[in-house]
Write a structure and sequence with these properties.
By secondary structure, the protein is an alpha+beta fold. The chain is about 25% helix and about 30% strand. The longest helix is centred in the C-terminal third of the chain and has 14 residues, at about 380-395.
Amino acid sequence: MRLKALLFFLFLSGLWPLSASARNRFIVRDTSGIHALKEACEKLDCTVVSTVDGNQNQLFFITAPSKIDPTDLLEALKKLHGVTNAELDQGVALDTGLNRAATLPEGLSDSAPVDYFGASVWHGYVNQPAAEIVRLSEARSTFHVAGTSIVADIGTGVDPNHPALQGVLLPGWDFTRDLPGGWEMRDLQPGISQRPPCTDCPVAVVNQSTAAVLDQSTAALLSGNLQYAAFGHGTMVMGIIHLVAPEAKLLPLKAFHADGTGFLSDILKAIYFAVRNQAKVINMSFDLTTNSPELSKALNFAREHDVICTASAGNDGQMEIVYPAALQSDVMGVASTDDLDQRSTFSNFGDGIVWVAAPGEAIITTYPFSTYGAAWGTSFSAPFVAGATALLLDQRPSTNETQAAAAVAHAVPIGPNMGNGRLDLVKALAANDPPGGNFYLAPSEHQNATIERGREGTFTFNVVALRDFAGTVDVSVAGLPSEMSADIDPPNIAGSGTFGLTLRVDEDTRPGPYLLTITGESGSLRHSVAIELRVQ
């Protein structure tokens, strides 16, 4: 039996230790609001637990005693004035039972430190076959993109202390506990949440789809332990997004426990949270076999707010319909390929769920405890496309879901039932390139962004034209405290050129770091570069 099926059985049968296991769970849309639903629940013996859609206040999570027949309660709820939908709160389980973590990639032993956009990472992480296959380095050098905006991942959370992710990781939220901080380390037993990194330790097979460089005691704790069957899943997904789009901000939204189980209501909360908190991309490395009307509504809501979504196609090795990948007007479903551009044997397929494919075998990525691991599964193909979307937004900030999907569709053909083919970042970015060319901003090298109080300093930046760009770029700066002023000379650049940013710091300016954002705009094109100014 596949691990996903086993977990799902334990989960729904109440044999797995989950909160509210003695109560049935429902999702209800009531346009009359929470007070009307609470009054109705007093008569129906149900409890309104929380709002699902944030400040819209029309979608609610409710529970009822298991003695009440769920079908009868659903029918009663649907008859209420203002209720437009009522459905069971589905249990969801991540699929980690691939039996594919036996052949370990050589790069997992390549722990030599290299600089990657200001962070020290393993050489084997940056220079792995998957990055070469999707032409990551060539895309970056050709189009001068490194990601932008906020990319959310709905999963098990993230290790907030992983050194590779520092500087781009946002706090996020833990929907399994309703706490700030989407940290998967909370699921660990006390005393093991922090272990020192061990670059010289051997590679351990943690579960059937993951291997990681771990000390012996940690490996023994995690290996084969169903309580931690999906531990590290979110950190690994985030690491792949960061590999592709290292300057994008990462928003961890924890909707799954370390055992891989979760609820649809928490997934819905995460989607609405992501939209409300300015995410431009949402990655969903999970799949449901049964569609939910509210899942469709939430993803449609995201698309209407210019959020671009990606989802894994599933790991059953079948042509089957799974969600959200099948919701192709709102989501790009992603299948898995190997290093030879063949469909991974575990990957689901079929044009009804697959928009594009991406590498999904032996992907080297970040793992909790400040180490690295290798992962197998469509869960780790989808974040390649999420990262690609962040690159498209960096290139052209106005890119929407339809445009992103059209760009990504310029892929490498790999045969039938695999959508538009295997992701090619160069082709996708070329297809998305604005007519008339583009530009990017770059600070001049070797500038010390430090100014003493009562003094001023001038820093130079370059506007670099790409592919015959000849437009006028208007330059601005944001992030200045009230005690600081700035002049930009010249404030407009035609095509390519250099401008100076002069900053004047008052005597009463508080010492410390200040993050300034310098932005260039030309029509719908908008590109920014951030500098950290230190006042002494």
